[in-house]
Amino acid sequence: MIGAWALASATVLAATSAQDAGVRETIRKTTELGAVTVEVSAASDRTEVGLPVVFTVRCSGRAAETAEPDAPESLGAFDVLSVSAVRRSPGACEFDVVVSTFESGAVTPDPLTLRWLEGTEQATGAIEFPAITVATLLGEQVDPAAFRDIKGEIAITGPFDWWPWAVGAAGVLAAAAAAWWVFRRRPGVPQTPTDWAMGELARIERAALPAKAEFGAFSDALTGVVRRYASMRFAIPADRQTSREFLDAARAHPEFPESEAERLRSLLRATDLVKFAQALPTASECDAQLAAARAFVEATRPADPVATEAGDGAAAARNDGAGTPTGGAR
User: Fold this and answer.
1) So what's the pLDDT on residue 277?
2) Is residue 152 part of a domain?
3) End-of-domain residue from the set 112, 136, 160
4) What is the DSSP letter of 145?
5) Residue-level pLDDT at 148
């Protein structure tokens, strides 16, 4: 009885493996560029959102040994994670392009620019990529286009008796005014975006969400603070933008430090992997993300005009003292 059950289980597993193997196949696309012939291949024609896809690019032809690819940040809907060093051999070369995307369905990366030498002149061409099917975490049977969109305001029809609401609102306002009069305090110093963000990041650290395996809640809270801080600091609507739109808006802002673009990009990508691809970061990776958020806030802290003016005044006083002799000094 046990032997028959084991045999049946093995048969089912073998059939399932054979079926999966049949679904996934190697994909290739060839581009003729005159002096260079380029073949792009990937081990599978399917992937999931957020997961890396490795495209191997092989160049052959009389100018292939001099071929060199560009290293862009993105290829259309795909983020470029890395472009490897070129592996060269007589009459050929090869390199890998690692990409990922959060789009779903049949998605094709934009062409990649390739440069090579024809004699003493530099030539360029565009490498075409094959399309790859990207599955969502909800399964292939779910069509995102069929999701119900956000609706507008709902109109309230019919007569509305506003007198009870007006009386109630007046009572609430009177009670609030009385409470303010009794418990009024001197106005405090407005909280700066930097102080608010640092306080929220400290609260996230005290919550110890990664230790409870609540990685999704940790990533949502972390990016929520970074996006809200950017909204207050740079007037960017980051809490209503995708990660790419947020990053592009930050780079375009005249006060955004160019040196912080890569830190922000890495932080958004790490949290997007948890949100969209169900990645499970380690405790040290979560600590690094929290530290990166703090460093981003510190690096984009606005200059203190009061401190600057005080420093300038002190410097001016020192200069006046040095330039005006006193006593017996001549």
Assistant:
1) 82
2) no
3) 136
4) G
5) 59
The pLDDT value recorded for residue 49 is 87
What is the reported pLDDT for 114?
Answer: 93
Number of domains in the chain: 2
**117 within 8 A of 86, measured Cβ to Cβ:** no
Do 120 and 206 lie in one domain? The reply is no
- 251, two tokens: 């780079």
Burial class (CB in 10 A: 0-12, 13-18, 19+), 292: middle
pLDDT at 110 (0 to 100)? 95
- State the maximum Cα–Cα separation within the chain, in Å, rounded to a whole number: 114
| pLDDT for res 138 | 58
> Any idea what the CATH number is for the domain that residue 74 is in?
2.60.40.1230
Token digits of residue 281: 């970061």
Is 10 contained in some domain? no
Structure tokens at 263: 């830190």
Structural domain boundaries enclosing 217 = 193-302
Closest by Cα among 212, 211, 205, 249 to 227: 249
Residue 188 in domain? no
Residues of the chain with pLDDT under 50: 1-22, 305-330
pLDDT at residue number 154: 60
Burial (CB < 10 A; 0-12, 13-18, 19+), residue 112, is buried
Q: Give the span between the Cα atoms of 250 and 256, in whole angstroms.
A: 6
pLDDT in the model for residue 320 = 45
Question: Looking at the whole model, is its pTM more than 0.70?
Answer: no
Structure tokens at 132: 């790859």
Q: Residue 164: inside a domain, yes or no?
A: no
Q: Supply φ then ψ for residue 311, to 5 degrees.
A: -65, -40
